Amino acid sequence: MSVIVTVTLVAGNLGLIFLLMTVPLGLRTVTVSRVIKADRERLWQALWPFGSDAGWSGEILSAEPLNGDGTALIRLSWDGRDGRPIERKARFEDISEGSRFSMTVIEDTALDPSFWADYRETAEFVPEGDATRVTLTRTDRYRGLAFLVFRFFAMRRELRKLDVWAATGTYRKGGWFEHPLSQIGFAVLSALILWPFFGLNIGGLALAAILTSVVALHELGHMAAFRLTGHRRARMIFIPLLGGIAIGGRPYDSRFEVAFVALMGAGFSAFLVPVLIAASGLASTEGHRLAAALLATLAGCASLFNIANLVPVWKFDGGQVLRQICPGPVPLALASFLLLSSLLALGWRAGFSPSFLLIAGAVFATLSLITVGSGVKPRHELKPIKTFDRLAMAGALLAVFAIHGYGMLWASAQLM
After folding, report:
1. Considering 110, 373, 392, 404, which has the largest number of Cβ atoms within 10 A of its Cβ?
2. How many angstroms separate the CA atoms of 292 and 86, rounded?
3. How many domains does the chain have?
4. 12-21, 27-36, 381-390: segment of lowest average pLDDT
5. What is the DSSP letter of 80?
6. Range of the domain at 315
């Protein structure tokens, strides 16, 4: 890619990440409404946490009043970090039986109370002939568009599923967005969006497809780590242009778990890179030059993408691993400096120009500033990492870095 195209792609991604994760939006209210062909009382009994059909979606397991001031303890079907259902303490206000109620969250067993400081939800039920208009409202303080957009579509889905439940008496889990076929479609779309950046020819399409495959393999590594650490459910979501994200089935329980899951994205590919190198060499020996070149390109893209994910940026895998295994701010700063220096030196050895490496360093620094502190604070501190686990993760990080570093240098030598 030319310098202009590279700068455009990088700047576009940085701007999109800022909009999605960081831009302060202040207090915002999302409202979604739907007319459902059902009696108002029946819908009230479904959405009112103390209603006879409050478990219609399987989300609410039980709701118990705590005292006379409108507070209640709600047990949810979502797994907490200990594998048990999350419990939420909520306060109900502005209650008009069968017509309206509002709820604020005081605290729960998963997130720090500050997360719920500005949150308020309201449900309203208005008869319209033989149907009922159900209106859901959520007010909260947002940083970045991502969670605001997510909440809008989650509310739309809730009302759509309520409509189906009212008509059939059955709750249907999941949806089209996370369906495997939809995710395959998003992956194809991602490759097509990247295609022009690599040139509108067969070679450019191959590079776009290879990069998309590398992203998928990286996220599969995270998913495997989630499973190994006890997450009963884990899924991957493709986001065109930005890549993909693996989502676990419960909050993290320990610092070791955070480090292990973060490292396994690149760790999974570290097992594949030597195989790809060997396969490319074998194909070259047998005279299959095109296959050898494609395998070498795949090995090089996998190495470059995964080693870039190990940079010590706040939300990148490398940054997450270092924050868990470094015992204090000084070791963290030193380890971050050494890791970033090693990455830049590796890029110089692989043939990248000094100006490109300076731009890359500036981009990484910008990303770190954009995403710092953007995580959600848990209700309780994560379990500390043991000394042996700390050393084991440090050794694994060095091994993964070395494997991908070798793969990057080998591929650059083969393809130049």
Report:
1. 404
2. 51
3. 2
4. 12-21
5. -
6. 251-415
